[in-house]
Design a protein that fits this description.
Oligomer: single chain
Helix content: 25-40%
Strand content: 15-25%
Order of helices and strands: EHEHHEHEHHEHEHEHEEEEEEEH
Number of strands: 14
Distance between the termini: 12 Å
Largest sheet: 4 strands, parallel
Strand order of the largest sheet: 2-1-3-4
Radius of gyration: 20 Å
């Protein structure tokens, strides 16, 4: 097993500072690590991005730990690494499955908030969503793209109090699109807003935080779990993992993250899935133990 980390952007020999602890933990386990240029990768300059990655004598499995990539860019990345006898743990289709909500929604829909979605080919037109939005009635919703929201602009570009108020839906959606700018992922997603167990209010953005947890799964086994937020008091609440037993085997990925939360009625839901290679480790996950579990599973 090999690991691929992003370099610092200033030196091809220094790891990105946000991944320094992970890099050191991997090195402590004597896991071979290579650095890649994320800046070159974004520009689709594969030879430059992978200039520090050698051609291996035989095929070897690898895990990328770095910034998010579009499905199309991941495809190119995957193929470029194959030419060096390095195969990423998740195929492009597996990456797409967990990275984009619409790709996995059918699989998790019984455990996650009601959602509608459409690709955004050009400019946003509320009329293209009007019929689909009717399923929410006058209940609150949130808006996001196929991957991310602007949750730290909660009232301005995320939370919509009444799905039937199309003027408000349009206003908040357009602000969301404006903030996403070139980072908009594929299209627009509207999700039913559900009442979750409250935690606190974010110290900077003021968004309401809830008792969420992030889990990492490799080869069908949960290898790490921790509080999603490092703020607030979780009151020793432990995640209920029983409901995931029926879900995890259906996730078409070798390595993924799964965010879960408890509703006010006590039931647990899946907030979202993520490809494990581009999902951040919460502060509560010990880096050394994480890489030990990652290699053992």
């Amino acid at each position: 097993m090999r690991l691929l980390f992003c370099d610092s952007g200033f030196s091809p020999k220094e790891v990105d500072y946000l991944y320094q602890e992970e890099y050191q933990a991997a090195k402590a386990h004597q896991i071979p690590c290579f650095l890649i240029s994320f800046e070159a990768l974004k520009k689709q300059q594969m030879d430059l991005a992978l200039q520090s990655v050698p051609v291996l004598p035989s095929k070897s499995l690898a895990i990328y730990r770095g910034w998010m990539l579009s499905y199309e860019l991941y495809q190119q990345f995957y193929q470029a690494l194959l030419a060096k006898n390095i195969q990423l743990i998740n195929t492009p289709e597996a990456y797409r499955f967990c990275h984009y909500l619409p790709a996995n929604y059918t699989t998790i829909k019984n455990y996650t908030p009601l959602s509608i979605f459409k690709p955004l080919a050009s400019s946003f037109d509320i009329n293209n969503f009007k019929e689909a939005l009717a399923v929410f009635g006058n209940h609150p919703i949130i808006v996001k793209d196929y991957v991310k929201s602007q949750k730290h602009y909660w009232k301005e570009a995320c939370f919509i109090p009444d799905a039937s108020d199309l003027k408000q839906v349009e206003k908040i959606t357009k602000r969301f699109i404006e903030l996403q700018d070139v980072d908009l992922n594929v299209g627009i997603v509207y999700r039913a807003f559900v009442e979750l167990e409250p935690l606190t209010t974010h110290a900077i953005s003021g968004m309401p935080l809830t008792k969420e947890f992030r889990l990492f799964v490799k080869n069908g086994k949960i290898i790490a779990a921790a509080n999603y937020w490092d703020q607030g008091d979780y009151d020793l609440v432990a995640p209920n993992l029983i409901f995931l037993k029926a879900v995890i085997p259906c996730i078409k990925s070798n390595f993924f993250s799964i965010d879960i939360a408890q509703q006010k009625d006590g039931n647990w839901i899946i907030v979202e899935l993520g490809d494990g290679q581009v999902s951040g480790l919460p502060d509560g996950i010990d880096r050394f133990n994480f890489y030990s579990s990652l290699m053992d599973c």
